[in-house]
Amino acid sequence: MTSPTLEVTALCKSFGSVRANHDVTFSVDAGELLCLFGENGAGKSTLSACLTGLYRPDSGEIALEGTPLRLSSAADAIRHGIGLVHQHFVLVPDFTVLENIVVGSETGLFVDFASAEARLRQICESYGIDIDPNARVEDLSVGEQQWAELLKALYFDAKLLILDEPTATLDVEGSKKLFRIIDKLKADGVAIILITHFLEEVMQADRVAVLRQGAVVGIKKTAETSPEELTRMMVGRDLKRQTRQSTPMGTARLALESVTVEGLGERPDLDDISFCVHEGEIFGIAGVAGNGQRPLMEVIAGVRKPKSGIISLDDTVISSKGVHAIKSMGLGHIPEDRFAEGLVRDFSIEENLILGEHRGTFAKGGLLDFRKMAQNAKRLIAEFSIAAPSGETLVGNLSGGNAQRVILAREMQLASKVLLANQPTRGLDVGVIDYIHQCLFNKKAEGVAVVIASSELEDLIALCDRIGVLFQGRLMGIVDARKTNLEEIGLLMAGHALETAV
Amino acid sequence: MIEITRRQTVGYRARIVAYLLALVMGFACTSLLIWLSGASVMEGFSALFEGAFGSEEAMLQSLVAATPLIFTGLATVIAYRAEIWSIGQEGQMFAGAMSGYFASLYLGGAPMVVAVPVIILAAMIGGALLGMLCGWLKSRFAVNEIISTVMLNYVIVYFLSYLLAGGPWTAEGSTSYHQTALLADNFRLPLIVSDVKLHIGFLLAILATVLCWGILKFTPFGFEIRALGANPTALRFKGVNVARTILIVMAVSGALSALAGVSEIFGVNYRLKGDVLTGLGFTGIIVGMIGGLNPFGALIAALLFGALENGSLYMSVLSDIPPALVPAMQGILLLFFLSASVIVRYRVRIRRASYV
Amino acid sequence: MSELLSPEILMSIMVAAMGGATVILFAALGELVTERAGIWNMGVEGTMLVGCLVAYLVMAGTGSPILASIAAIGAGMVAGLIIGFMTVTLRVDHFVTGLGFNLLASGLTLFWFRSYVGGGKPPSYSTIDTVPIPGLADIPILGQILFNQHLLTYIALLSVPVIAVFLRRTTFGLETRAAGENPQFLEAKGLSVATRQYAALLFGSALTGLGGAFLMLAFADQFRPDISGGRGWLAIVAVIAGNWKPLRTMAAVLIFAILDSLAVHAQGVGVDVPYQFFLMLPYVASIGLLILIRSRSGQPAKLGVPYLRH
Asked: What is the membrane topology here (chain C) (predicted)?
């Protein structure tokens, strides 16, 4: 019997006191698709980093086709034919597709663009990928960039291909195409590891290894298991999903009328957007990343100004007001990138909690009111269960979940009328996600109009009353979350118009 | 291959050790310089310290030399805490001295209690305006502040050169000296210790240090300065007008630099000329950075550098070492301090390289 | 003013401008490559100053312009190594490093020069001659401006297309640009970011040192403090105004050089506007250029961002 393409035995990796991977053992055969399934923080990314030479395991063995490997850099992994397709593309936007691909595989003084292009075109043809090798990556759509990322790995004849959440940026059509490519790769004898947390993708694999808290809790053949069983294994208990309470909706609270926001290029970032959100309504924004979610949140919050159109809050026009004035009317904003936009890393929790209010509530006689700051922090740390030794702890030292709780604590107080949340649960583990959803429901119960953008469609369907779908800055349609399904939203996300509007 | 990872927190002890090490390394390298130039290291240093601290008069003289450095050092602290990398302290100091002199031309026989405050105020306005110009170029046109301040430094120096070499401010019969006529008594800063020209500018500098410290630590404006330096985007998302904050920071920094010009021209030299100011702004950058961008740190660094500056003249008389040793030494110390401040934040490990 | 517009003076201004441009062009091309690798090197002025002093000392000692140039290149590389250690290895802020290095260079060169001279008069030498290109130098007007220049001027001008091709077509050029656009990309490909950044800094600083040597050999017969006079800073502005592209950077350099040359001629001709105002021109123009040319589309995405590996 031949050795499996990859065999991982008792692999352990810790960061300080955190055990990211513990005693991980599994194998993948040539021509097999193995799925690594687990929550955020279960150790999937650490494992893929160990397999591609970015991290070195503390102990354990990695064997490729029966030969033990010691990978100490990405170069080692590439040399041994291990390819990684990153979740967040690692591409040079300023380069052409071809330039992105040839870096690292050329050895001469000059790059032989002609033969590299011929080879790339041949690969594209054999896998049915339609992409212009000489197009600049920044001019490509997000979906096309995913193909460029995949081509980087296909270009050097990988024996083992690791795909890290590849469908997060693809629409329904794109995902289907990806699985056709995977089938072709399997036929060519490539071993594939697919990292995902989407159950329907998991079920397309040959086998699935479930990770929980850094350890493999079970390996199953997909033919012999069910989505329910896998979910139980992943979470360690039966999943109790929170769903919307049916509170009656009030009057319109936040209204957008023909809002257009200019973009850097020809295409506007937001194109003629109109919708309204009612008192006590949770309004979801769905869409493939980069289709206008961020400009939408920013224009409502006043961070950006619309080129045309009117935004109003309780019949007061806010589109001409500044961030501060809008915020004072009762709007809270949880920005997409918590460390880049929401927090100051080098500031303490106390200081971050008063950001924006430092001239108002927390100033006394021209000086900062330290006592009030401390009391405020103490109260909010307890109320929002922020795990930190004290209010003086620097926010940069907090975990993603606790950092998000700091933003939540600050913005929930402001949000007496409108709460904007852009990807509030990204990269967080289930406990925090549940907590954030609970917070949104509380706001709904208080009669606040909540707008949430998320890439987790299932979450949106469970949370929201209505969902608007963005595609290239346009609102493709608004669907009733009670009556819709993933297929319908998927089509809208791909730019197909809705036949019957709600 | 040196591998570096970030530490979570830095202990006080590690910091002190690192800075002491930087100081020792700085002095070691300076010794090497002296030795390379062929002079005696021991003689050089002992003359330097004799000149700086050897007598009561020497020490007071060191305070006089430190005064403008405190101002330009504080100007650096305020701007750099906001991560505005202005190196316009030099030009703003010139602008301050020139505005002060300009005001004095209209003050005629005004009594000192009126003339001196007006001169100081005029100087601060001049420095602040030049600083704000760079702030405006930065926020309105995205012109990098390092570049605009460097260029304006040159422009201001040439402008003063025009005024003093044949221009309207040239003292009669002394074109070749490039200086104005002697200032009248009522324009001169009152002295605290008259033998060594220790003037009220020194007290003003101490006051400014305490004020800067208080502003940074206790006021909402200081909060904004620090937040601007750490994450301007978060500040913008919370509704703070970042462009306006940059303008105010540059105005404050410029006004502080201007005070350095006033204290040198109206407190020590009693006539406006370029070469007595040259370099005080740049040394202020070193002072601010070695002081860890902390007002009191800058004060200590300024006192040390003032002493070195003062001692260097004595040293050059007693030994063959040129006074230029001091700027060289300051540059060396700066690089070691910068390295030290970063090294304490990292854990350094040596590991096998396997990268191409 | 009209004196400056006579054909002979204009010709003379242009001929001198090509020489002056050489100094800034070497530094600007070096800085361009360095910045494309992601290092925002603000130490150009200091590096040039060190190059000037070393070239002067070697020239005064040996009388050989070739040795002086080589020594200045070496001195530039040492400067690049120090800046590289601070920015790439220690990851000190790039701006802070540059500012610190300039102050160090200005202090060190001053001290070195003063102790070298001692109490005496600084030695001087005669500046190097131009090398006319036979045939081409006789073309009217253009021949004088372009083909009756110093050897290093030809080299500087030829470097523009060479560097453009290097960045676009060569393996190492592509990798250097990748380091400035997305260092994580290089690392994922198994290539070292630090190696490329150090290489770019060494190359860039060597060119800057050479620019300093040319300033000493062609224009000055002896060193004086701060002789570089902001040319290193003008080089940085030229790169920004040139949108990080070699040919446009050269155009910006030419503007500064012509203004500089104009100021020198204005002094000589005796124009009624005070000469100090002419001397301000290149510096004022540099700010003006940055206001006028607002496009930063060519700026490397990760320029000046210290890269911390996993």
From this structure: Multi-pass membrane protein
Question: Residue C22, class by beta-carbon neighbours within 10 Å (0-12 exposed, 13-18 middle, 19+ buried)?
Answer: buried
C240-289 tens-digit pLDDT:
999 999 999 999 999 999 999 998 888 877 778 888 999 999 999 999 99
How far does the CA of residue B37 sit from the closest CA of chain C (Å)?
Answer: 6
Q: Supply the pLDDT for residue A240.
A: 57
> What is the rounded distance in angstroms from the CA atom of residue A101 to the CA atom of residue A31?
24
pLDDT 10s digits, B255-292: 999 999 999 999 999 999 988 999 999 999 999 999 99
What CATH number is attached to the domain comprising C269?
Answer: 1.10.3470
**Which chain B residues have a beta carbon less than 8 Å from that of C96?**
85, 289, 338
Q: What is A167-196 written as a DSSP string?
A: GGG--HHHHHHHHHHHHHHHHTT-EEEEEE
Mean pLDDT of C175-189: 94
Number of domains in chain B: 1
Q: If you average pLDDT over residues A341-352, what whole number do you get?
A: 94
Determine the Cα–Cα distance for residues C61 and A282; give it in Å rounded to an integer. Answer: 81
A202-241 confidence digits (pLDDT tens): 889 999 999 888 889 889 998 898 888 888 888 776 555 5
Tell if the CB–CB gap between B238 and A323 is shorter than 8 Å.
Answer: yes
Q: Write the CB contacts of B244 (distance below 8 Å, at least 6 apart in sequence).
A: none
Contact A240, A433 (CB under 8 A): no
> What are the pLDDT digits (tens) for B47-96?
999 999 999 999 999 999 999 999 999 999 999 999 999 999 999 999 99
Write down the pLDDT at residue A501: 43
Residues of A in contact with C188 (CB under 8 A): 74, 84, 86, 90
Model ipTM value: 0.91
Q: How far is CA B120 from CA B75, B202, B263, in A?
A: 16, 14, 9
Q: Using the beta-carbon criterion (under 8 Å), do B230 and A345 form an inter-chain contact? A: yes
A1-81+157-235 topology per CATH: Rossmann fold (3.40.50)
Selecting from B151, B161, B325 the residue whose C-beta is nearest the C-beta of C287 gives B151
Which residues of chain C are within 8 Å of residue B166 when distances are taken between CB atoms? 274
Average pLDDT over residues A463-476: 92
B/e letters for B333-348, b = 16+ CB within 10 Å, e = fewer, are bbbbbbbbbbbbbbee
As for how many domains chain C has, the answer is 1
Q: Do domains A1-81+157-235 and A254-494 have the same CATH topology?
A: yes
Q: Is A135 helix (H, G, I), strand (E, B) or coil?
A: coil
B interface mutation test: which of A344, A393, A397 has the most B CBs within 10 A?
A344
Q: Which residue of A has its CA nearest to B356?
A: A75
Residues paired with residue A261 on neighbouring β-strands, in sequence order: A270
Kind and range of the H or E element at A26?
strand A18-28
Chain C residues in contact with B6 by the CB 8 A cut-off are 308
By Cβ distance, the residue of B227, B233, B240 closest to A347 is B227
Q: Answer whether C308 touches A (CB < 8 Å).
A: no
Q: Could you give the angle at which helices C7-36 and C246-269 cross, rounded to 10 degrees?
A: 140
Of 3.40.1190.20, 1.20.140.10, 3.40.50.300, 3.30.70.360, which CATH number belongs to A254-494?
Answer: 3.40.50.300
**Long-range CB contacts (< 8 A, 24+ apart) of A141-146?**
A142/A169, A142/A288, A142/A289, A142/A290, A143/A169, A143/A170, A143/A171, A143/A174, A143/A288, A145/A89, A145/A91, A145/A169, A146/A89, A146/A170, A146/A174
